[in-house]
Amino acid sequence: MKYLFLLLIVVSSNAQTKKEQQLSLMPLPQKVVVLNHTFLLTKDFKINISGNPDSRIFKAATVFLRRLDERTGLFFNQGFISKKDEFPEAQLQINCLQKGETGIHDDESYHLSVQSNKIQIEATNDLGALHALETLSQLLQNNRTSFYFPSVVIEDKPRFSWRGLMIDGSRHFQPVNVIKRNLDGMAAVKMNVFHWHLADDQGWRIEIKKHPKLTELASNGSFYTQEEIKEVVKYADEKGIMVVPEIDVPGHASAILTAYPEIGSRLSGEEPYAVEIRSGIHNPALDPSNPLTYQILSEIFDEVCPLFPGPYFHIGGDENNGKEWDANHKIQKFKRKNHLETNHDLQTYFNLKLVPMLEKHGKKLMGWEEIMTKEMPKNAVIHSWRGVNEGLEPGASLVKAVKNGYKTVLSNGYYIDLMLGVDSHYLNDPMPENVVLTQEEKAGILGGEATMWSELVTPLTIDSRIWPRTAAIAERLWSNDTVTNLESMHKRLKQISFRLEEIGLTHIRNKQVILRNISNYQDTQSLNDFTNICEPYKIYKRNGGGKKYMMYSPLTLFADACTADAADAYEFNKAVKNYLENKELVNQKIVTDYLKKWIAMDLDLTRLSANAPLIQPVLPMSNNLSKVSGLLLQTIENKRNISKAYLNELLEQFNIRNPADVELAVYDSLKKLAE
Amino acid sequence: MKYLFLLLIVVSSNAQTKKEQQLSLMPLPQKVVVLNHTFLLTKDFKINISGNPDSRIFKAATVFLRRLDERTGLFFNQGFISKKDEFPEAQLQINCLQKGETGIHDDESYHLSVQSNKIQIEATNDLGALHALETLSQLLQNNRTSFYFPSVVIEDKPRFSWRGLMIDGSRHFQPVNVIKRNLDGMAAVKMNVFHWHLADDQGWRIEIKKHPKLTELASNGSFYTQEEIKEVVKYADEKGIMVVPEIDVPGHASAILTAYPEIGSRLSGEEPYAVEIRSGIHNPALDPSNPLTYQILSEIFDEVCPLFPGPYFHIGGDENNGKEWDANHKIQKFKRKNHLETNHDLQTYFNLKLVPMLEKHGKKLMGWEEIMTKEMPKNAVIHSWRGVNEGLEPGASLVKAVKNGYKTVLSNGYYIDLMLGVDSHYLNDPMPENVVLTQEEKAGILGGEATMWSELVTPLTIDSRIWPRTAAIAERLWSNDTVTNLESMHKRLKQISFRLEEIGLTHIRNKQVILRNISNYQDTQSLNDFTNICEPYKIYKRNGGGKKYMMYSPLTLFADACTADAADAYEFNKAVKNYLENKELVNQKIVTDYLKKWIAMDLDLTRLSANAPLIQPVLPMSNNLSKVSGLLLQTIENKRNISKAYLNELLEQFNIRNPADVELAVYDSLKKLAE
């Protein structure tokens, strides 16, 4: 149906009207005015570029047009957009005043106006125009026969300047095509910083020509060549994304020390260094008392820095447990000689020696919060990450950083590897509550970064762990701080998830690949139903203290087909809530339909398991759920008495660790029904 | 259930026993003996390499182990296999006498023996060992709780030495990750030649440092850098695959001439050359009378040849319609001066000048069959491709080539872009029937190549057009010529298709992405049902003479979700055949169940189309099918009289071109039911 807009509706960023709610925009723009007509798309739709933009706008406009063609099947006549001012009568006009500079300092604002016969994008520079095109593509709507844009006027700009995603290419190597499609995903939700974690205990992932041993001995053959690095940096820049490389030192050093044991802190005669195959915090640490350490790092930085045009270089600096330092008498002697009382002081000594190595290349040092000491130069960026899981107050380092004059980026609360629900990430705001900050201190909070640690993710599953939750984090970092409505976010996120698939992300399609493998190519419907109510164990539980999964262990199991925010769990939880508030039949039926579905699902899984060993680990949970469902049906539908004790005994089973490494996401609601 | 083998069954390559039939091996090995026990897989399963193999065996063994781990979830203790003779007690022993040489000349045989506690691979060299590992991975079986290999003794070697796949990277650019996953697919079915079509009218796809204009002006930004070429060649070599580059000259030249119009045959003052956006045979041709043509080609070859270690270089040479030559008086004068009577003679003159350019780099010239003339040196390889669609006798050029002392490769009958059924490709044998050839002539038939022309394929759809049909072609080229049973092939192909998905091919998973787009993210079940009885228009019909699709037109439509060999059509056709032979109720029900399914499907598609413009083009066909199904149900189930004339009128509708670009694959069976 065509929308009939009878009123001019002005929307402030504090609330969403019904019309704005029907738009699935994420991040929500600062200001959206919905008007009363539509712009109809036809095959004659053309794009024209004017003004003074960077050349990247031409590629972006072409990609936009082709994606629109793929969604609408309209067969646009226009092929490639490559010349300025080529079609002054084109329906979509993009005008940029100047060239934009990728990074966190330039203007990213835009003005988007959709009228019934014309669309206008005005931006200070092409960065804003790129953002406008992403917004426009999210505006697409349709009726039975046509595609169109609703007429709107949008003014938009980001709240935070650092809106990042970190991908760990070390624990599980992520090839270039994986990186590129995730850069596309970032651009789709207006993220602008890609933090590339390139070295860790489990692998050194970047070619260093002067030190070929690093990849020869410490990469198991999986690493990025310098050409590939350049290709990714160029690709990112075309989408307005700055790349920040990370070489994590002095801890997390198993890989670099496998290649160069001579700069390690382990005493000779001890077990030789080897590339780590397990997760966790490991002992290997660089020797800060050895001049060779600094020589090699300097030579590495000399090669890595020129590959990255951005001004930031991340040196890691986290989780150095100091054990190797404590056990090494030479290092202890060095500490005493240099009046370095603690390991923290020694690490500071080490970090400070890296600063000029990077400054030489025009890079500012960035590091995880452990680098924050009195002597650290104020232009270092502090990456705040520790919180409850580390026994510390979340965001404490963030406040400490800005109060001490540093710039800081928040990742605590955006640890997407922990498989927490999107709500927790969405409501996690970089601006601390209950703390008074000056304007300058507030300006020191640059933004945040979602961190995709890859101990348990492979190219097959990584997109499902990043998306769609990171789109909600992107909104937190772009949109106004009053945009916090969870129901609206969930509704829009569902649509955005489909947009992300269309641009090439595999978070939806790859699940079926895993399910087909698990079901041994029998029907996957029941398995799919089960994944929709299970979530992988959260935080660090799945890996059982780093003991269960080696870096080469299989990640094609039921838990890998599950994601955070199990789809049916969200719906079931709502249904149970409604039912418990109002037990009328229509509410009851929604609940009992799920219970019946799970009983049938269990029968089916049991049947299929006769020919599918990988279904076996999920059967105990499925069987138990079937029993619980049966009992609940008796009491809800048949109004029979049941043994509450037995029911609760069955429910308790869900709290015992099961071999499928997943938790039942509808557990709480079942408990409520069982009361 | 464990298999109980009571007898020792010796199987010759002429027939398959029941036990062998339960194995889903493709290509079928030369000799398979199935024994009476099984090898149980546990997490202690290890691999050991011994002998004198090329280092590629270590990577291949590691990949094999990891894939096995992903399929079984056994958590194998062994990580990376990197040292020879590391585990002399390992259950899987791989022994190679010597290093293998990638190409078409080396021994590729292997001996695979699976016993109850040991697996032995013996091969002359690592090429055979690689093949053995692929066979072994296809042998995997399971019962309810365990995975195992059946005990077998297999001796195997290929029938033909040239077992190729050509990918056209020009019409639609195919990025490196697409090429690599298809190399994986090729290796899985023991193919060993990758023919890379790098330049054509629609785009020049390879970086030439001395001539940057080629990519700057004629690639629309999509091309392979020389580093990427090297990376792909290395990746292919690790899998025992030889890469043959193709630069198609002197026709198919729109792209090269966009960069270098000065070496074209168009007269000045005429329309300037431009990268072609349409399919078909185009006029642009290089000027063979201009010395600059040869200079530039020589410089291009000087850069391209060293990137490819194999001995063959394909210069194309097809479909030069001669129009530009005929219209150019200078060229006509040149012909007369050099006593070259026809355009064919002139092209031969041109081709012969290329020979020393390639010989300089140790390359033998290969070209499409049009290059075959008296003067062409006998070490040129003739690529036989023309047949019925070109108004010629299929395979005629093949026979002519070997009778004239050439080596030849067959692609006619393996044109997988034409969307023909797998049966036609499977039964197409490179050895001509009804022709008497000497042993030497037979040896001149090196093998065959499936050709993936990409006018209508993108990275999203290409795998579904190559696989799984190319696996059947791989069997034709590897297995004995008596292996021709269609039912066995179809049964095994279904399993092999799943194996191909597991190693990374997207032919199954990407269909759902397209369907979700078409259904506008509503339910896709009915669309999926419809794709299972429709096939894209075959041969050159879909593109309507090259007029419908430009190179940038959308290929995310219903026809792109369909493939050759529509899955339900195969089953329905069998069901109708059975029913017409024997009209008992059980056979009738299978048929009528489909008819009812299609009536419900049409209702559902009509409902969904209210919110999905991309469903509209399939509705006429779906509606019509529903009507036909309804009438057939009346006569089959209800034994009512219906108007045969009306029914046939409805059936005739399917013969009119519909906007969905697909044909109804169950049409013939419906016609039979309507008689």
Automatic annotation (TrEMBL), chains A, B:
Gene3D superfamilies: Chitobiase/beta-hexosaminidase domain 2-like, Glycosidases. Keywords: Glycosidase, Hydrolase. SUPFAM superfamilies: (Trans)glycosidases (SSF51445), beta-N-acetylhexosaminidase-like domain (SSF55545). InterPro entries: Beta_hexosaminidase_sua/sub (IPR025705), GH (IPR017853), Glyco_hydro_20_cat (IPR015883), Hex-like_dom2 (IPR029018), HEX_bac_N (IPR015882). Transmembrane segments: none annotated. Residues 160-480 form the Glycoside hydrolase family 20 catalytic domain. Pfam families: Glyco_hydro_20, Glyco_hydro_20b. Residues 23-156 form the Beta-hexosaminidase bacterial type N-terminal domain. It comes from the Bacteria. The keyword Hydrolase applies. Belongs to the glycosyl hydrolase 20 family. This is Family 20 glycosylhydrolase. It comes from Flavobacterium plantiphilum.
